[in-house]
Design brief:
328 residues; alpha+beta; Beta-Lactamase; Alpha-Beta Plaits; six-stranded mixed β-sheet; 10 helices; 24% strand; elongated; disordered C terminus
């Protein structure tokens, strides 16, 4: 094991991180350094039923495909929430530790490869995992909406700035790969005030919670989902084509319309979306999507409006110089 000073320095670095994906990488590197193992691999659960994981590795090559035996070990670790061990050679073995959130839900597995049984390994790993779980809990409490569990409004600027940076980095590489496009959509529940007036605010909150769960189930793990407040929700998507993006949003709109909300029945939503530009500001991006949402609501509701298409068709006009938008 490394010195106490270095150990404390590593733990201090962990507590500074406020992004979960970056924390997973830093935690994996911290385990690798502190345990002085041959490798540390962090397997974040994407879908326990499909046996899919997102992997971060330190000390060995990261493989995109997880073998059948390894997948079985990971699933055993998740399902039993017990430490698992595998032995490759006489003195080489890998220990798999379940990682849970504070509600005791398994969220990941951290695997440590070592040449031999290290003294107090399980005790040290237990403490490191507890530190990681406490940090992720604080991040989630700070960054997520209390009612829905989606990202909250104050995290939006940080998240979208990372999207801008990724777009600029991809442009600078000027490689032959297909260009990645991003889109921002704003969703608003139509006539939500009537829900509160007719059924009460508790049922209104239930509608918001169920709507957020529909968002989580309908969209991908990597999509950024926010509740901005009230009945307004925002999402950022990576999608190659604008037509594909419009189909995805309309499919979700139809899914919400067909969902039976307890006591309330069916509700509809309107959405406005726009393509993300690498030199946007967060305010400009939100304004464009908001204007297209306003257009959808003023033209019958229960529909999806594309800001950029509305500009091309002449239904909206963008004042580039002043940064203002006029409705016709």
């Amino acid at each position: 094991m490394i010195s106490t000073t270095n150990t404390l320095a590593k733990l201090i670095e962990l507590t500074k991180e406020r992004d979960i994906a970056a924390l997973e990488i830093l935690f994996t590197h911290t385990v690798f350094d502190l345990i002085e193992s041959r490798a540390a691999i962090f397997y974040r659960v994407l879908d326990v039923y499909k046996g899919t994981f997102l992997t971060v590795a330190k000390g060995k090559e990261q493989h995109a495909v997880i073998s059948g035996d390894l997948k079985n070990t990971l699933l055993n670790c998740i399902n039993t929430q017990l430490v698992q061990e595998t032995h490759q050679q006489q003195h080489d073995h890998t220990v798999f530790y379940p990682v849970k959130d504070l509600r005791n839900k398994p969220i990941a597995v951290i695997a440590v490869e070592s040449p031999k049984d290290l003294e107090n390994l399980q005790e040290v790993m237990g403490l490191l995992i507890q530190i990681y779980q406490n940090i992720t809990s604080l991040i989630n409490d700070n960054d997520h909406d209390t009612l829905t569990g989606l990202l909250n409004r104050k995290t939006f600027e940080t998240k979208i700035t990372k999207v801008f940076s990724a777009m600029l980095s991809e442009h600078d590489r000027q490689n032959d790969q297909a260009e990645t496009n991003y889109f921002l959509a704003i969703f608003d529940i139509d006539h939500f005030k009537r829900v509160n007036d007719d059924f009460g605010h508790l049922m209104g909150d239930e509608v918001l919670l169920l709507f957020s769960q529909l968002m989580t189930k309908s969209f991908r793990e990597k999509d950024l989902l926010f509740r901005f407040g009230g009945e307004e929700f925002v999402a950022v998507f990576e999608c190659p084509l604008v037509d594909d993006m419009e189909r995805v949003l309309n499919r979700f709109r139809e899914k919400v319309s067909q969902f039976a909300f307890p006591q309330v029945g069916n509700v509809n939503i309107s959405a406005g979306f726009t393509q993300v530009r690498p030199y946007d500001t967060p305010a400009q991006l939100i304004d464009r999507a908001d204007v297209s949402l306003y257009h959808a609501k003023n033209n019958g509701r229960n529909q999806v409006s594309n800001y950029d298409a509305l500009i091309i068709s002449g239904e909206l006009q963008e004042n580039i110089k002043e940064g203002e938008i006029e409705l016709f």
